[in-house]
Design goal:
5-stranded mixed β-sheet, single chain, 20% strand, alpha+beta, Arc Repressor Mutant, subunit A
Length: 360
Amino acid sequence: MTHTLSRDDARRIIVRAQMLDARRPGDVVEVAEQLAVIKIDPTAVIAPAQHATAWARIGWGYEPGQLTKAVEDDRVLFEYDGTIRPISVLPLLVPRMRHWPQHARGRGWMEANARFADDVLARLRADGPLLASEIEDTAQVARQSESGWYGSNQVPRMLESLERQGRVAVVGREGRLRRWDVTERAWPKALPEYTDEDAARLLDERRLQAAGIAKERSAWTPVGAAGEPAVIDGVKGRWRVDPQALAALDDDPGGRVAILNPYDRILFDRPRLRDVFEFDYVLEQFKPKAERVYGQFAHPILVGDRFVALLDAALDRTRETLHVTALHELAPIEPEEMEMIRGEIADLAEWLGVPVTGLR
């Protein structure tokens, strides 16, 4: 059976799956279990992405130390490939790790540096956890950075390669610096084991759980055959919907205001954002200043299931204020909605421990 949904229903399913409705989660572990992936990004124009993501959902009950504790002490969450994920997802990633790297260039570099990899692993086993700067670069073959992201030292690249193979893991951070260890110490003992096929199927299900609804052949939110087929009135394409999210449509807790970091997961699938929310979001971070319309790092504002504004603001650490440069209205906003938006901006500033300036 193919379900037929209105665009409003599809929006409500997505908002609820992303924990952005009126019913707030209790802690960051609950958030990570539902979203499956929380992006780490150090660009702290207002707050780092991982903390802003948690705050947008939990609100006042969230403190940044809770995420650190869950990752480093309790080990119920883990860092992988620039994201925070729940431990329940780790066994589903392990089969894919066994096949990395899949591209010839990456395989060639790892094969040429087999002794280097052994050196890094031996050093971690003997003295870890360690920062990359504490590990010697014994690379046989250097790989030049095309993006400028890496320097000449090959240790960070090797650590990230070994991470993708499931041989080392990030176990903590000192500021922005990652502390690494071997996975036999970092990971829980006796993880469940899955075949490649079962792991891929279960990952598709977790992605759909977090998405609520996704296009059947989406490069942004690949969900395979998970869930049930659906179509959305007025929207092209075939979709997959999470049956649990569909069953909960009538149990609607209502909406609220959410200020979203540009790297928030609800914004990741840009085609879905355009199709379902009719919101064409462009992050202007990498545009020349003269070409920016809404600001370098404008935060989308969700009211209920509509994106109504973009907040151009920054935490001014010198003056210790949250300074609002502009609040760009994208759609008509009712006076009571504007009052709610202003209240959420004030709450954000209070969470940061500073006053708001510039908001008219």
